[in-house]
Amino acid sequence: MGKDPRPQRKPGGTAGRPLRFAPVLWRALLQAAGDVPDTHPLAGDLARWRSDADALKTVPLLGAVHVNTLIRTALHGSRSSALGIDIGRTQTLSSFGPAGFAMMTSATLGEAFRVGLHYQRLIGTPLLLHAETVGDDVHLHLQSGVALHTDVERFLIEEFLASLIAILRQETGRDLRPTRTELTSPALPPDTQRRYHAAFGDITLGAPGHVTVVPAWWFPLPLLRADPAAHRDAVAWCERLSYGEAQRAGHTFDAQVRDCLRQQPADARHLTDVAAVLGLHPRTVRHRLARLGTSFRALRAEVLSDQAQEWLTSSGASTDHIAHELGYSDARSLRRAVRNWTGRTPHDLRQQPSTAAEDQE
Asked: Taking the complete model, does pTM exceed 0.85, yes or no?
């Protein structure tokens, strides 16, 4: 399985990024929220959202404040001790639109996994996913893509892991379960903890980050609904949506290029690669960026700088490993680049605290 660099977020930089849930999760949240008084901050929104959902209209984009409020309302209105697990178990790949279809028609589990990581913004979750190979295992790291309350983040982790396990079994026909899962959650109520262990297997609480570990031997497993021709068309559809959604969201062209660079694997961050994803000629990309007073080379350096600093401040990975993940030939090259970007050494950066979003109680 190829490695994908971890999607990045700058401190406070994604708090306003609009988010969209997968349709099945969206409808489940609207139902769980129940009836609210007229004084509730989402009273008018919930009525409109439910009407739109009944009419099968597109799920709206939400800011972090609405995400926090909606999920907390759903949690308050539910009697479940682990609402995320209950909802996640109902998910199928068809719940995730074109990206789900591209995953479903992949030849192997590893290919579907790579597709899911690459098009994760089309799937519909505020979580950011990053995979790394460690020995004979693959570690899937999950982090908030926006500033979320602790209980909201826990719900999203529950829902994601439950849906992941359900989909693994549906698409391979095998009873697959992660080797272990590490969560930042402190001690949970006994009933909730029992549900966690029943759903996810070996669980460690109070970990420094959310990580689920699966064996690498899974990834050559064939998928039951593999279809090469349909897969090719679905991937092309995802590419068009990735570019078109950025335009509809009003992102400037340089922001689109940055997003594309973040999603590309380390060996596919050349101008020709990004231009192909955007459906443009490389010369057009250069000209559009020049009109904005920047260049492809500058944006690539900016993305690499952000990712290097995130790795160095929030992971225990070695400098050699980080250099490899980011596409550098060796640790010396990475150290030289970090000094050029920040005026500091990788060792200096490791001494500063992580910039992860704080709980907003």
From this structure: no
